[in-house]
Specification:
By secondary structure, the protein is of the alpha+beta class. The protein folds into two domains: 111 residues, Ubiquitin-like (UB roll), CATH 3.10.20.740; 101 residues, no CATH class. It contains seven helices and eleven strands. The longest helix has 30 residues.
Length: 270
């Protein structure tokens, strides 16, 4: 049996232990230490796109050297000493938010975070393109993680953007809204009624729960999820709430049946 190697480190002067391979951000989050992020999500591999999670690191063996690293990518090391907030770190984050505010001056999420670091307005030239997309790539990564790969990045430099293939409704989109829900700045628009869901140029018909009639998901997503899980598509045609009610009813019926059978056996024994 392999024993997991534990690493000891300090964060803001306090000692912590974490399994080898854990990132500094993960340790800090588990300890309740706040570090701002925009491009990080626990379900996806980190890429360090927004850089806001910068922290300062040093080590007793580094002879006084210290530097800033992105905590979502930096793995813990034995004896590592981490500082998550000081004047230098705040200056770095302030500059990053200044740049993000220049790119997306109308994004409420960026405005709020920038204000927390004292940036009321960008000192750089504002982006002439009206966008709230910060190019964090979360939408592309979550789409790839689901196995759809419906969207991607296009262009280079200041013209880089999240785009559909050939600017057409992506054929591999299943309308799951994972991209829209994971976006930190609500940059991906969609519309939904009780009948249909519209996103990326597609209009998806929604499947309704066979028990209560509430919309569940697009038919295309249902078929995709059923195939991926190796389940009968009918399994997904009941909403989560009704499924729980059915499960509770089944458990209750089984409990009553066992109770009655047990009582009858006791009666026979007597």
């Amino acid at each position: 049996m392999t024993t997991e190697k534990m690493i000891s480190l300090e964060i803001n002067g306090r000692s912590y232990q974490a399994p080898e391979g854990t990132t500094v951000l993960e340790v800090a989050r588990r300890a309740g230490i706040p570090i701002p992020t925009l491009c990080h999500h626990e379900a996806l591999e980190s890429v360090g796109a927004c850089r806001l999670c910068v922290v300062e690191i040093t080590h007793p063996g580094w002879k006084g050297w210290k530097g800033q690293v992105t905590s979502c990518l930096y793995p813990v090391e034995e004896g590592l000493q981490v500082t998550t907030d000081n004047a230098d770190i705040r200056n770095t984050r302030r500059t990053l938010l200044d740049l993000l505010l220049a790119r997306c001056p109308g994004a409420p999420a960026i405005q709020q975070l920038a204000a927390e670091y004292g940036v009321a307005a960008t000192s750089f030239k504002k982006n002439e393109i009206d966008t709230t997309c910060i190019l964090c790539g979360l939408c592309v990564r979550v789409c790839a993680a689901k196995g759809c790969n419906a969207i991607g990045t296009a262009g280079r430099g200041i013209e880089r953007m999240i785009a559909r293939p050939f600017d057409q409704p992506p054929p591999d989109c299943i309308g799951c809204l994972s991209c829209a829900h994971i976006c930190p700045t609500d940059a991906i628009p969609f519309k939904e009624t009780s009948e249909v869901r519209e996103i990326w140029g597609h209009t998806f018909e929604l499947v309704k729960c066979e028990s209560c009639g509430r919309p569940i998901m697009p038919e295309k997503q249902l078929e995709y999820e059923a195939h991926k899980a190796g389940l009968d598509p009918d399994y997904f045609r009941t909403c989560a709430a009704c499924s729980r009610l059915k499960t509770v009813a089944t458990i209750r019926t089984a409990f009553v049946t066992r109770t009655v059978a047990s009582t009858d056996r006791v009666g026979v024994a007597r």
